[in-house]
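Intended use. Records like the one below are meant for learning the mapping from a protein sequence to its folded structure. Do not use them to infer anything beyond what is encoded.
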Amino acid sequence: MKIIEAGFEFMEEADGEKLLRKIEKAGRVCYKSEGKISEHSAETFIRNIIKRGHESVLEHGSISVKIVCDRGVTHEIVRHRLASYSQESTRYCNYSADKFGSEITVIKPCFWEEGSREYAVWKESMEMIEKNYMALLEAGAKPEEARSILPNSLKTEIVVTMNLREWRHFFRLRTEGRAHPQMREIACKMLAEFQKKIPVVFEDIAAEG
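Structure written out for the chain above:
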């Protein structure tokens, strides 16, 4: 059994300046102010539309991210309706196969320290699940049948595409103090990178805690 931490990667280079120019070009149609477009006008224009609450314009830009997290977290991610998802399938993935290292991979809980009683109980449970999952496959069960005992902690990969308005909504919800700890863990990491790449769109969102 392999234990890893949650993470993510951009599916392509998120060109912040290119996205801002596209959004400005679309947004200025509303005001018929295309003649005001200049080399450096996009940032000011977009900061102003966010301030005025005209965030529908942000829907003209989107970003795709591959998130590596546990399956429990993805149950929360896919509740965001205005998005596209492609997720690793436990129906078709046979974790006894060589390409998976003939083992399951689980996400380390961020709320329990290694060496704690809670962590030891969790790890023992994961090892037992892996043993029984492999036993089911050896007994002739199909992966889509054996998956019924796989845990929320199972590592999964999910590609998420959202427009920039929905990413703002995602980060406002998923980085606040009441969000699930493992949801916040990955969302806060992502927000920091989004703020580096497109600060004008995400600079006003502050992760709590």
